[in-house]
Amino acid sequence: MEALIHPTLSKLFTGIKSFQQRAYRLNTDKMERLLEHGQKPKVMVIACSDSRVDPALLMDTEPGDLFVLRHVANLVPLYDMDNNHDSVRSGIEYGVRDLQVEHIIVLGHAHCGGIHTLLSTLSGQMPQRDFIGGWVSIALDACYRYVIGQVDAESEGEPGCTVRQVDMEGLCDHQHLVERAAIRGSLDNLRTYPWIKERLDNGSLCLHGWWFDLESGDLWATSADNSSFLPVLEIAVTVETFGHHA
Length: 246
Hints:
- This protein is of the alpha/beta class and 246 residues long.
- 41% of the residues lie in helices and 13% in strands.
- The chain folds into 2 domains: 1-38, no CATH class; 39-243, 3-Layer(aba) Sandwich (Beta-carbonic Anhydrase, Chain A).
- The chain has helices at residues 7-25, 28-37, 55-58, 87-98, 113-122, 132-136, 140-146, 168-172, 175-190, 194-201, 239-243; strands at 43-48, 66-71, 103-109, 206-212, 219-222, 229-231.
- Helix 3 links the parallel strand 1 and strand 2.
- Helix 7 (140-146) packs across helix 9 (175-190).
């Protein structure tokens, strides 16, 4: 007698069968190469765990193309040797030092639940959770550095507007600014890893910050100096561009 399968899991099993057909029956050579020679992705993506923002789906990639780390709010902690049980830092280290990726993309998105928790905490509403409050506090420094006290209107896509003050209540109404600031802060934190800095200095590694707009499907990316976000279609994708450090 066959065991009953929950409808939700049944959908997943159907998906696995579809993947098997595409990857193992229609594209056997590629999977064999990946098994025989191992993975050699050129790009690492540090993305949010949000179910609406899957890097492989967004970028239409195949097995072996991306080395992906996913966790709440796509945050990168500072380099710190005191905590040895750290999946984020170990994942970054493996991608950079073992896989020798050439690009690291920090991929954030609109309506991020982790950033919403950070804003709630700043507003005095402490989350009734064991771990998430401490984790999202990683973005506090970036929030103060890039948003609180002055909002660069250019980061909102409104060149020519004057810089204006934003209080905490107003900040909650501009969550996208904090999401983008958190990405910029994670890029700053990546530079504190000595083996990342070494590769940035010798030009063998580039950092990129991307923000995906769930409402429109648009993608925004950090400028070369990490000072602002620009619509991705306005960025000239050339060999010279990839030579710059985000």
